[in-house]
Design goal:
heterodimer; A: 339 residues; alpha/beta; Rossmann fold; eight-stranded mixed β-sheet; three-stranded antiparallel β-sheet; 30% helix; globular; B: 624 residues; Pyruvate-ferredoxin Oxidoreductase, domain 3; seven-stranded mixed β-sheet; six-stranded mixed β-sheet; 21 helices; 36% helix; 20% strand
Chain lengths: 339, 624
């Protein structure tokens, strides 16, 4: 819930460290969105932790005046899992890039999602390795020419929404770095979700992959190229809302002209649908950031989170056996006495 | 009848070494374990050596599938599972073929004759039947049709023939229990408890056990049983314990003594998984266990929990340590408490996963990039794993550092009687979290510096999330001395490298000096050991001294840093020898550190040294 009278200001959430991303980097607007949002969420800096891996995005914790850990490439979801299991009183955020979370740390990401650890995970997707100066990433398009792929990359890219939905994440959303209002709304929803919340942020790397998302996120392009997913609303887009999404008689999600199929045929978005299949189909509507692409909350379902379930087992064990008694434990196997 | 009574009177022995061997599916580990438990409760001193293949069920009847359990029981203090068994129980031809070479000449051989049919003989590689071709004439052979007798015994219970055969290990256990006058009650009670939910199986196992016992008593095969008196143990309450259980309980105790919840992040790996299993049972102690997606996540989650103020632990074996190395390096840089447990096994790579070795010492010492010192402690007997777990936690918490605890497959699965400690005697290892700011900034405002060190220990403050006013960021990038902010300053990096090294080196002042036993004042030879070689070294040193040689023994629990007096001790004796189950890793460290001509005695066969092997090596070293 968003609180009415914040007790902190955005400045309270900003550390005294100089921000050292390249001028013009999309990360600045994401940082600003988070720092602006934090007072509205009602948390406190001392109960908030940002954990990151390695990469440009992973410098994020240094700029937040909270507890933070800048850890190892790829391992942030695993480290944050331990912290969230140990301390379910904390508000734990994980920040990383597409290489960090989908390449070297892909395993940890999917396991944090399937376990539903109470984490807010922000993945800045710029489709490139920035900190190592411009190699293709696991989200780069096929044929990407970079320093490490002078003849074009051969790898089929991951679709982060498909990966998260495939891991049956309980909260999956997408936003982009040019729309602070939308970002803040997605981050707010993610933070308020109990369990693992995964948010992909399309983020522009103006040095190594400039304009990767321009075809869909530039101001003039958005109406026709971004498909807003709004719970309970028909999925429509276009300046006149003239386009929409249907599921055809073959079970495929398709973009259609509303005039052609009629308003009633348009798919009504249901983020709370238990079965992730339809959300997965929506994630496949776009092959890349050059086709109309859905943004918003793909999926938000209630499921017990890992830390709470862990604590439930601990409490049940104490109810049954009483608090741990070391002397009793030491005598729990067959013993004998020597006089 | 008077004669018969007399012959059935047990003959007293001071000790016996029995080796149970059979197919992986024959239940030999269970048989050995139950025999051991009954002997422990009876009051003997004992030491065990379970040996089993890496395959869960290797093809039945093959040499690869042989599983064995050796137990040494005595009326006096012993420290090893024995050099060579005097009794071998062989449940099939493969077990006989694979284990017979271990049996002493004129030793007792008990075979299950039902298994000695052509197909099994062929699988074991026998061209002729060893029971009839005269090849066993050096041994006292007892031929017992155990399968048939077991089936007969359980038939009245309506057990299916195939299930009936499964109880034959209890027949063997009953027979050996009669032979060595073991009390039956502990085994029968255990059967009732274990198979309580399957009454027919419980009844079958009881019947098989009773039949084996009765067979010993009534078949005119054996002249008399044997007895071994209880050993003179110090007064107190004892239990028989394996190294992995003792280690797990030591961690539970460490949590209690530190007044912190335990967090264990682990991944299944032989021979360490039992610690994860054991700790996951004790949730009422507030212990959280995570079976992570991989070894890296196991230590990562533990490090996250350490940041959150838990006593964090990760358990693994050598290959897992390799995977955890990067995170150990981060823990060195973050200076957070973390206990890393390595139950060593044969390597490199998958190596000999169920066999023992001590070949991870140099990995523990140096297996990370950068200057990355980590304290190392090693357990030296199964029961001592308890104390060493507490010591590892003490050092980790006090010095805010990852600590490596080395055990091995032999300690992990071997067992011995353990005088249970009094909880009130256990050390208080609790530490304080930071709650206050510790520095004033240039404008006169209080602030928190996460890397401002305690001048005595050089440990940094441990400020956990949730503490108002102490918000701070830590990471793997080099930190400015004091403030902890990112720093690429060359002089600062050099200072931090030295500070981290000095912090670990300083622990030498906070650990006991190494003690020397044996001919402390005038030994010709000093034997330096670490870890599980303790028992065999102790036995060998005593044998050499009994022959009139002057020998001393120093055994290291702390391997980094070494005890402060170690250099002086090493200089005191003309000859120094270092037995290790590797190619000389400790001897290399001693030579490098102390410029001492430490000779290496090595063995990498997946089984511990025997006292006899070491005795011969020590005599050779002394030119005797």
């Amino acid at each position: 819930m968003t609180i009415d009278t914040p007790t902190t200001t955005p400045q309270d959430w900003a550390s005294d460290q100089e921000v050292r991303w390249c001028p013009g980097c999309g990360d600045y607007s994401i940082l600003k969105a988070v720092q602006t949002l934090m007072p509205q969420l009602g948390g406190t800096p001392e109960n908030t932790v940002f954990v990151s891996g390695i990469g440009c995005a992973a410098r994020f914790p240094y700029y937040m005046n909270t507890y933070g850990m800048h850890s190892i490439h790829g391992r942030a979801p695993a480290i944050a899992t331990g912290l969230a299991m140990a301390r379910d009183d904390l508000d734990v955020w994980v920040v990383g890039g597409d290489g960090d979370m989908l390449s070297i740390g892909g395993n940890h990401l999917i396991h944090a999602l399937r376990r539903n650890v109470n984490l807010t995970i922000l993945m800045f997707n710029n489709q490139i390795y920035g900190l190592t100066k411009g190699q293709y990433s696991p989200t780069s398009e096929v044929g990407k020419v970079t320093k490490s792929t002078p003849f074009g990359s051969l790898d089929q890219p991951f679709n982060p929404m498909s990966v998260a939905l495939g891991a049956e994440a309980s909260f999956v959303a997408r936003t982009h770095d040019l729309d602070r209002k939308h970002m803040m709304e997605m981050f707010r929803r993610a933070r308020e979700h109990r369990g693992a919340a995964f948010v992909e942020v399309f983020q522009n790397c103006n040095v190594f992959n400039d304009g990767a998302f321009a075809a869909i996120t530039a101001k003039g392009a958005r109406d026709d190229m971004l498909i807003p997913l709004v719970h309970g609303q028909p999925i429509r887009f276009g300046a006149e809302q003239e386009k929409g999404v249907i599921v055809d008689d073959q079970g495929r999600a398709r973009i259609v002209s509303v005039a052609d199929v009629g308003e009633d045929a348009i798919l009504v978005h249901d983020e709370a649908r238990a079965e992730p299949g339809l959300a997965f189909m929506l994630s496949r509507l776009s092959a890349g950031p050059y086709e109309p692409t859905p943004i918003g909350v793909f999926r938000a379902v209630a499921r017990p989170d890992y830390g709470s379930e862990t604590n439930r087992q601990l409490a049940a064990a104490q109810d049954k056996a009483g608090p741990g008694d070391l002397t009793a434990l030491l005598h729990s196997r067959p013993t004998w006495d020597v006089d | 009848m008077a004669d018969l009574d007399q012959t059935n009177e047990p003959v007293e022995l001071d000790r016996v070494i029995i080796r149970f061997a059979g197919d992986s599916g024959d239940g030999m580990q269970l048989t050995g374990d139950r025999f051991t438990s009954a002997s422990a409760v009876f009051g003997n001193d004992l030491s065990t050596l379970p040996e089993f293949p890496a395959e869960i069920r290797a093809p039945a009847g093959t040499l690869a599938g042989v599983s064995a359990f050796q137990v040494h029981i005595s009326d006096h203090e012993i420290t090893t599972p024995g050099d060579a068994p005097s009794v071998l129980v062989a449940m099939n031809p493969a077990a006989l073929r694979s284990e017979l070479h271990q049996l002493i000449v004129a030793g007792t051989l008990i075979v299950n004759t039902d298994a000695f049919e052509e197909r099994n003989l062929t699988k074991a590689g026998y061209r002729t039947n060893p029971l009839t071709d005269g090849s066993l004439e050096r041994f006292t052979v007892y031929e017992v049709p155990m399968t048939t007798l077991t089936k007969d015994a359980v038939a009245p219970l309506g057990v299916k023939p195939r299930d009936a055969e499964r109880s034959k290990n209890f027949f063997a256990l009953g027979l050996i229990s009669w032979m060595y006058t073991r009390p039956s009650a502990p085994t029968l009670d255990w059967i009732d408890e274990k198979f309580g939910s399957k009454p027919q199986m419980a009844a079958a196992n009881r019947a098989a056990f009773a039949a084996g016992h009765a067979f010993g008593e009534t078949a005119e095969l054996f002249e008399h049983p044997y007895s071994i008196r209880p050993a003179p143990h110090a007064p107190g309450t004892y239990t028989n314990i394996t190294g992995n259980t003792a280690l797990a309980w030591g961690l539970v105790a460490a949590g209690q003594m530190a007044k912190l919840p335990i967090f264990l992040g682990g991944y299944p790996i032989t021979p360490a998984s039992d610690i994860l299993h054991e700790l996951s049972k004790h949730k009422n102690f507030g212990i959280r266990t995570l079976q992570a997606e991989d070894e890296i996540a196991g230590i990562g989650a533990a490090l996250g929990a350490a940041f959150g103020g838990h006593l964090a632990v990760t358990t693994t074996s050598g290959p897992g340590i390799a995977l955890k190395s990067e995170t150990m390096g981060l823990a060195v840089s973050l200076e957070l408490p973390l206990v890393v447990i390595d139950i060593q096994r044969g390597g490199p790579s998958t190596g000999l996963p169920t066999k023992t070795e001590q070949s991870d010492l140099l990995q523990a010492m140096y297996g990370r990039h950068g200057e990355s010192p980590i304290p190392i402690v090693a357990a030296y007997s199964p029961a001592r794993c308890f104390d060493v777990a507490i010591e590892a936690a003490r050092i980790a918490l006090k010095y805010r550092t990852p600590v490596l605890l080395l055990s091995d497959g032999y300690l992990a699965n071997g067992s011995e009687p353990w005088l249970l400690p009094q909880v009130v005697d256990l050390p208080d290892i609790s530490v304080d979290f930071a709650t206050e700011t510790n520095h004033i900034d240039g404008d006169g405002n209080p602030e928190f510096w996460p890397y401002l060190r305690d001048p005595d220990t050089l440990a940094r403050p441990w400020a956990i999330p949730g503490t108002p006013g102490l918000e701070h960021r830590i990471g793997g990038i080099e930190k400015a001395d004091g403030s902890g902010n990112i720093s690429y300053d060359p002089a600062n990096h050099e200072r931090m490298v030295h500070l981290r090294a000095d912090k670990i080196a300083g622990i030498a002042n906070d650990i006991p000096p190494v003690t020397v036993v044996g001919d402390v004042d005038d030994a010709n030879l000093l034997v330096v050991g670490w870890g599980s070689t303790w028992g065999a070294i102790d036995g060998a040193v005593n044998r050499c001294r009994a022959r009139g040689h002057r020998v001393a023994h120093a055994h290291l629990v702390h391997l980094n840093p070494f005890p402060a007096n170690l250099g002086e001790v090493l200089q005191r004796y003309p000859h120094v020898v270092v037995p290790e189950m590797n190619l000389g890793q400790l001897s290399r460290l001693l030579r490098a550190e102390f410029l001492v001509d430490a000779k290496s005695v090595t063995k990498v066969r997946g089984v511990p040294f025997s006292a006899g092997e070491l005795e011969a090596a020590f005599l050779k070293e002394m030119g005797a």
